[in-house]
Amino acid sequence: TNMDFIFLLFDVHSLILYQCAAIPFSFLFYYLCRNGCLSLISRYIYLMLGGFLLAVVTMGPYCLVVLIPAVSSVLLIHFVSSQHLHTWAFLTQMGWQTSWHLLLQYREYQLQEGDPRLLAAVSSLMLLTQRVTSLSLDIQEGKLKTGDTRTGNYISFSSLLPYLSYLLYFPALLGGPLCSFRTFTSCVKLCNVNPPPNPQWTVSRKCVLVLGLEGVKTLLTICINIHTEDPMQSRDLKGVLLIWSVSLLYKMTYYSYWVLSELLNNAAGFGFGGYDSKGFPIWNALSDADIWTLETTHKISQFARTWNKTTADWLRRLVFEKCKACPLLATFAFSAWWHGLHPGQVFGFLCWAATVEADYRVHYYLRPYVGSGVTRLLYKSLTWVQTQLVIACCIMTVELRSLSSVRMICQSYISLFPLLYCLVLVFVPRKHQ
Predict the structure, then answer these.
(1) Which residues are catalytic?
(2) Would you indicate the residue range of the signal peptide (predicted)?
(3) pLDDT tens per residue, the chain (433 residues)?
(4) What's the pTM value of the predicted model, to 2 decimals?
């Protein structure tokens, strides 16, 4: 069976090119600020206009999908009291986003058509939802003072400009990581007073990493295409290996795009986290891609906390910490809603939630029996394989999205691995609190 339908989902080359094209403008922003060529208002305008132009170029007329909620969110900050701001911001933003996700599903499943520009707009809208709700939470919890946004009978543009700039600034428009409003404004204000060290070396190093990841993706694609059979149709153990390989290809795609988005922020001076013990600058204050931890961990729970880390932290703050009943299930259910509520996404995230809870129980009860040496090595090896295959199953169902893909995954041997952990939930009691 032809595998082209799977690799259509990896068609992110245009977005990668747009991100790469924006790197010189990030460097230009950094050097203009460092040399004192931009006033504070000019810096906010530079970042905002850059986001506006990037939206127009990448999304065409669908840029309104992002621009309308960005402007309306800033108006909410002005008109709604801080006690009710988060509720209004959350409901309006998720309502707007859900309507576009439903339109995408209608066009995909009923009309059998897709528009890359609309997909880019909805993807950017999801990132905007993170920034809007993060900002509204900061204001509602008293961590951020909005100040006076009026001058006489008129709205003060200069006081609202930082919020609009934050919601649209171009280094974060098409990709994470999520940056808090306080971090954003402190970076903008200090970039010419106490600027971070030159990020050129860090950006160059991460460019090399992106090229390396793209090379790994190419090799994986070649290896998968050598097998003429479709892994989704294979019913033997070789099919399990092929499905794991395709899921690894998805992960490499995410890693590559996360690192690229991270270096775009770094080029503008965002993400500086101080100096290490040897005096070298650390540029990972804004990072989603801890590739080593993700690929070596033997705990599904640790993978969930590390995968797309700033988004995981946002979900923890937005849902997990505020939900009294079944916070883990509620967090993954909301993640499915935020991603678009495709059948595969709902199944994949709920399966992921179940396996995370089972993972806690497994490691809690097995830990006392694990000593050192061969026993510990065997324990980590088996749980690493289990983690890899469970995550592969979840990723494939989430990324392929359709109900037919869920059925094909469930008919493959790889479905036995999450099923094993689901049985743990039935027969192994919850760990003691």
Answers:
(1) 308, 339
(2) none
(3) 333 334 344 456 677 888 989 999 999 999 999 988 999 999 999 999 999 999 999 999 999 999 999 999 999 998 888 899 999 999 999 999 999 999 988 888 787 777 889 989 999 999 999 999 999 999 998 888 775 554 444 566 678 899 999 999 999 999 879 999 999 999 998 877 788 899 999 999 999 999 999 999 888 888 877 765 565 555 667 778 888 998 999 999 999 999 999 999 999 999 988 887 787 888 888 899 899 999 999 999 999 999 999 999 999 999 999 988 889 999 999 999 999 999 999 999 999 999 999 999 999 888 888 877 888 899 999 999 999 999 999 999 998 888 888 888 888 889 999 999 989 888 888 765 4
(4) 0.92
Tokens 């899921």 label which residue? 247
Type of residue at 178: L
